[in-house]
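Copper ion binding protein (Arabidopsis lyrata subsp. lyrata), 271 aa
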Amino acid sequence: MAKRIFGFFLLAITTFTVLLGCCSATVHKVGDSDGWAPKEDDNWTDREEFHVGDSLVFEYDRNFNDVTQVSGGLEYEFCDSSFPKAVYNTGHDVVTLKEPGSYYFITSNHTQCTSGQKLDVLVTHDPSSPIPPPSPSKILPSGNIYKVGDSKRWSVYDSEFYYQWSKEKQFHVGDSLLFEYNNEVNDVFEISGDLEFLYCDPISPVAVHKTGHDLIKLTEPGIHYFISSEPGHCEAGLKLQVVVGPTANVPKLSPLERLTRWLNSFTFNHH
């Protein structure tokens, strides 16, 4: 029994120390000194290794370019920016690689994209770092799905309609918003703050959705802002802000509690 307790204690201390002392993430400046620019047969990615937690820095002239993250290889190959996962256009964009897998970036300037201004990177876990325990969001039940505007969908040009719609509901982390609309005449831009929302400014969106059937999960508490980027639509009332509270009816786990739960998933054999 004493050996079992000692073994558990030793593993807990070792794991906690490793988790706290793991290697720092790497910041990769895309294109090095040339920045984010057209390049043919560029082998920049061949000289780099990309791990979860690393960041990409895109530097460029925002008057002529942007960084558009697309979802797959076909969009990447054909320089199709019609349905981006995210759009960045500050001229100095820092994109954190949060999950393993393939990431695809292009410029929405089609001429420059076909000239080689695009980037795909394969992201893996750093072999020198332990895979962290799952975050609470991975083990929480799915939340509610709210169809924005209910039967009227994302199409009402009334400054009070969506305000009243959201006011009558309580949103929590884990819930999702479903935007349904005609994507030939509308879209959904998620923006970052009050001023952008007030003045219907879509210049620097957090994310862009254009499928006509967009399911957006609310992953963080706080105020989330959504507008249409089509000229005049937001000003006419096609805008939504929702206040998101913590996950409903699920206790928030501290880092120590998360570590304990993760360690308890191991089986210790008594010899």
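Helices lie at 2-20, 73-77, 110-114, 136-139, 161-167, 194-198, 255-263. The longest helix spans residues 2-20. ok done for today
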